[in-house]
Automatic annotation (TrEMBL):
PANTHER family: REGULATORY PROTEIN MARR, TRANSCRIPTIONAL REGULATOR, MARR FAMILY. Residues 42-178 form the HTH marR-type domain. The lineage of its organism: Bacteria, Bacillati, Actinomycetota, Actinomycetes, Micrococcales. It comes from the Bacteria. Residues 1-29 are annotated as: Disordered. This is MarR family transcriptional regulator.
């Protein structure tokens, strides 16, 4: 009779299905306890979050390369699109404040985005002394074309969760936001 600890032998506490089940990003070995599809450790969860962060960073690089722009330019466009969606027209000083840039730096940024055909300067509707920044329709189309598949896949992933799972995910993410907000 062979011993279960010998190479090529299976332990009686582990079946083929149990030993082959492995979560992406899982750090558990399944040596003693079977890896169950729904069982994920706190460490595994944090590792999955890191993988998501890395994948998002890589997506941003691909997006910047696709749109041929730098990180600050992309962040500026995202801010301007959000402002417009909220019914506000941003000014250069709003952009400077949101991005933490100096007035000369934001002026150069707006000049570059305008020259490259992403935005245009227009009279601000609420303050005639100020200049508003308008995102051009072609910019919307390019952003939508570049990111719509990813956004729909992300929405689908969220919609595939049960209400209880979404509540758990929201609780986890809020906890992380609180944790990283405390770091000084």
């Amino acid at each position: 009779m062979s011993h279960p600890d010998e190479p090529g032998q299976r332990s009686p506490v582990s079946s083929d299905a149990e030993s082959e089940t492995e979560l992406p990003g899982s750090t558990s070995s399944g040596y003693w306890y079977a890896d169950l599809p729904d069982a994920i450790s706190s460490i595994d969860l944090l590792n999955l979050l890191r993988e998501y962060r890395d994948a998002k960073r890589e997506m941003r690089v691909r997006t910047r390369e696709s749109m041929r722009m730098g990180e600050t330019d992309l962040v500026a466009l995202r801010f301007l699109v959000r402002e417009r969606a909220a019914g506000r027209m941003a000014r250069q000083r709003d952009l400077a404040e949101a991005l933490g840039l100096t007035a000369p730096s934001v002026s150069a940024l707006v000049d570059r985005l305008s020259r490259d055909g992403y935005i245009r300067r227009v009279p601000h509707p609420d303050d005639r002394r100020s200049v508003g920044i308008e995102v051009l329709l072609a910019t919307d189309d390019e952003i939508h074309k570049t990111l719509s598949r990813m956004h729909s896949d992300m929405l689908e992933a969220a919609e595939n969760l049960t209400e209880e799972e979404r509540n758990g995910a929201a609780k986890f993410l809020r906890g992380l936001i609180t944790a990283v907000s405390r770091v000084e």
